[in-house]
Amino acid sequence: MADSSRGRLAIVVGGGPAPGINGVISAVTIEAVHRGLEVVGIRQGFSQLVTGDTSKMVLLSAAEVGPWYNRGGSILGTSRVNPAKDPAHMQNVLDAFDKLNVRYLVTIGGDDTAFSGSQVYERAKGKIKVAHVPKTIDNDLPLPPGIPTFGFETARHYGVQLARALHEDARTTGRWYIVVSMGRAAGHLALGIGKAAAATLTLIREEFRGKKLTLDGLADIIIGSMVKRKVEGKRYGLVILAEGLIEAIGEQGLIEAVGENELRQYGKIERDPHGHLRLGEIEFGRMVREWVSRRMETIDLKSVMIDKDLGYELRCADPIPFDAEYTRDLGYGAVKFLLSPEAAEYGAIVSVVGGRLMPLRFQDMIVPATKRMQTRDVDLNSVTYECGRQYMTRLEKEDFASADKLALLSAAAKMTPDQFRARFEPLI
Questions:
Q1: What is the rounded distance in angstroms from the CA atom of residue 402 to the CA atom of residue 396?
Q2: Sign of CA dihedral 37, 320, 185, 286
Q3: Which of 256, 201, 169, 238 minimizes the C-alpha distance to 395?
Q4: 271 pairs with which residues across the strands?
Q5: Which of 53, 98, 112, 138 is catalytic?
Q6: What one-character-per-residue DSSP string does 7-42 give?
Q7: Contact 83, 46 (CB under 8 A)
Q8: ∠ at Cα 291 (285, 294), nearest 5°?
Q9: pLDDT digits (tens, 9 = 90+) for 184-235
Q10: Which residues touch 356 (CB under 8 Å, ≥6 apart)?
Q11: Among this protein's residues, is 111 annotated catalytic?
Q12: 3-state secondary structure of 57
């Protein structure tokens, strides 16, 4: 029987949606009630708590949340409001939790929400025990090797279904699709979709770390793939681009290529408080498609191309069985940690490794200077990436080492071998 005398357990969801949020909410509630706690869900994340408003609180019961474990979205909503940015806002949150008699907190979210949870733990000085359940479809949080963030596998699953359908449409109609996948900091989702959908070419930000990437260079990598497919007798293809490539090109690179005024045709151009362009407002897929078309004109290569952004369709999908099971483990594990002696010693990010609960201390996971977790990149030296790279169709060193191959490629591009080498070999 739920009892508020021990203090309540609150659940707060922050950041963008990811499949499985309701699974965590459901599992936390069921286990907490089973342990005799009263559970309150805070609607719309920290957005109302930062003002001290506690009216968005709702009591949760096992019967109410049980049916939602395998549904997408969030029954509590979510918000990107970060109370840790303003000490006054954080104090309002603490006062609100005190008013609600909250003694245990489960936060569900990414970097900002994890840091907010860590600050609640630190500022509450032991009065509130905190567990954070990490989520992102980007899979870029530094969990132990081989452990995904919840939501990633579901997002990849549905992303692959869409990409396979586009690939078949490309084959049927003889056209090329340029698909931009979510994944600003890391390319796990783009690579996962590209490999499983047998994409012709998948490009991620990590490939260009330490290298200068230009819009011309990106377009020519794609064109090189098109030329090679033409030689193979295939005039269609599917290209997956991680959205982080736009930041790899960078603000200055885009301005040099397109011009700041011309950038406005690709979206609303805004600058952040530091004066930098908000690159997320730019229609990157359309820009790449049009730039590829422009670069193709100089070599008389023609192809019908369609661009598509892939991401929002995936964030509120019903979780596949992997995430439905995984989020139950995470929710159960969060409550188990909060009621353990260790929770009085530190706040933690919940992780399950090898079937065992592994709480990861906030202080070990969050970088003090950035107030964020270290990004988990795609490991370019892993067999996972190596396999994906080997199955792509793109220009390779051997294409330029063989006079016969070079002759075929240059002829397909209606260029001389020397012209083809001068333009495309530097991209290898």
A1: 11
A2: negative
A3: 201
A4: 277
A5: 138
A6: -EEEEEEBSS--TTHHHHHHHHHHHHHHTTB-EEEE
A7: yes
A8: 145
A9: 889 999 999 999 999 999 999 999 988 899 999 999 999 999 999 999 999 9
A10: none
A11: no
A12: strand
Q: Which residue bears the tokens 């500022």?
A: 123
Indicate if the pLDDT at residue 5 is higher than 70.
no
Q: How confident is the model at residue 273 (pLDDT cuts 50, 70, 90)?
A: low
**Domains 8-150+319-373 and 152-315 in one fold:** yes
At residue 128, what is the residue type? I
β-bridge mates for residue 42, sequence order: 12, 57
Residue 3 clears pLDDT 80, i.e. is over it: no
Residue 288 in tokens: 């790449």
Phi, psi angles (nearest 5°) of residue 411 = -65, -40
Is 8-150+319-373 a CATH 3.40.50.10280 domain?
no
Whether residue 213 contacts residue 245, with contact meaning beta carbons closer than 8 Å, is answered with yes
Query: How many whole angstroms separate alpha carbon 132 and alpha carbon 113?
Result: 8
The token pair at 408 is 């075929």
The values of phi and psi at residue 36, to 5°, are 95, 15
From CA 324, how far away is CA 30, in angstroms rounded? 15
- Residue 264: per-residue pLDDT: 81
- Contacts of residue 159, defined as CB under 8 A and 6 or more positions apart, other chains included, come to 181, 189, 192, 193, 197, 310, 314
- Domain ranges across the chain: 8-150+319-373, 152-315, 395-428
How many residues does the structure list for the chain?
A: 428
For tokens 């599992």, what's the residue?
A: 27
Q: What CATH number labels 152-315?
A: 3.40.50.460
What is the β-pairing status of strands 348-349 and 360-361? antiparallel
| pLDDT at res. 300 | 74
Q: In whole angstroms, give the CA distance from residue 100 to residue 265.
A: 49
Q: Which two tokens stand for residue 100?
A: 């609600």
Question: What would the DSSP string read from start to end of 303-347?
Answer: --EEEEEESHHHHTSPPPHHHHHHHHHHHHHHHHHHTSGGGGT--
Res 61: pLDDT: 95
Residues 95 and 72: their CA atoms lie apart, in Å, by 32
Which of 66, 77, 73, 76 has the alpha carbon at shortest distance from 19? 73
pTM of the model: 0.92
Among residues 145, 149, 210, 168, the alpha carbon closest in space to that of 350 is found at 149
Residue found under tokens 């303003």? 86
